[in-house]
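New here. Invent one.

***
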Amino acid sequence: MFQLHTQSIRPLTTAHLAQTMTLLSLTVDELRQQIDSELAANPALELVEERRCPTCKRILPDSGACPVCSSPNNLGQDEPLVFISPRDDFFSKEKSSEDEADYGADSFSTVVEDLPTYVLRQIAPDLEVADRRVAAHLLTHLDDDGLLDSNSIPELARYYHIPISRILEIQKLIQHADPIGVGSCSPNEAMLVQLDVLQDVSDIPPLAYSLIADGMSLLSRHQYAELAKKYHSTAAAVQDAFQFISENLNPYPARTHWGDVRQPAADTAEVYHHPDIIIGHINEDTSMPLVVEIIMPISGTLQINPMFRKAIKQVDESKKEEWKSDIERASLLVKCLQQRNHTMQRLLLEVVQRQKEAILIGDRHMVSLTRVELARQLDVHESTISRAVAKKTVQLPNKKIVPLASFFDRSLNVRTVLCDLIARENRPLSDAELVKMLAKEGFQVARRTVAKYRAMEGILPALLRHNPV
């Protein structure tokens, strides 16, 4: 059972556990909505607007993070500093920083951010300046579903006088940004990209790829028996694959955060989530420890309304139970929020310590880390880690935004090195040759694994690759 790691450790009640797990799975924007809903529905709950630290409860100055929780006890320590930060601290800080020139004053606006801007902000650090214009061109030609017309790629190559292969490399980077699959040329291609990303963190039904590639027409009519015959399988296996596709894939990536897959996109501009975690350095000084801010969507303090608690003594007996229920619900929410924050702090401390080089240098330095391993390290259930990681995004020191789940991608470092090797090849290298070169880099992988990773990155086999001009 999930446990609260404080000075007195005791099992959580069923209600406490259930609500903590629910809150743990929410992004910062979803958490804000949940808190607003509770404040509107429960008169026993109130938000005190004074600025208090979410961790130590000290009253804060008008701006800036908590001077106690955001300051390391020992500046020489290599351990990252992890603390809960009110959302307003981050956004006011970002808008006044030197990065405003690069990202614009509205980059972290709490109002609206359209899809092209959101995706470009994620991939810009990985692109040359000239390629950013190409990426922006592609992104501004997305349809309402987040898909590209395949004819736009050769047209763009002619317009910019660059090889189609270069356009495809930029497209691949777009496809692997959030929402996964955006920039694909068809719903099927978008789902295949999503499958490639999922296969390292989930068991993919064997028929999923085949069904998406050339079986969707029959699948849409639920002709399981005919599909089973076509793929020499069983109707049950086809249904399992169909259920996986329905529950995990989205053929229309632009609708990931709003609307319904089966309905047209709304007329209003698309709203995207802000990062849930911010990683940087104290005062941008790279010699200082890393600072990890877990964004809390409120800057005030949630508490039980003292007037409500006092008034319950004078209320009619017929309403007393209802009022007690309101107080208990408010108390439970406050405790569960504290538990959520505590769990996120412990998780992020461990992840950032383990993945420090990947955060500072790049994906090729990613170390192997699984949810099961981290759960064992923190003495919690694996489902707790899964909920804490799900849907969360992290802003890295270079301002790139990545899914928190990417720190658990066991293949990411190998794929990054593989791409580097192929990018530097003087002649097309075979998969067998790439196996040997990866071994020299310290990665022991089989040839079929190289072929799989190459396919995931959209890289052609050696026979179909040509030397750069």
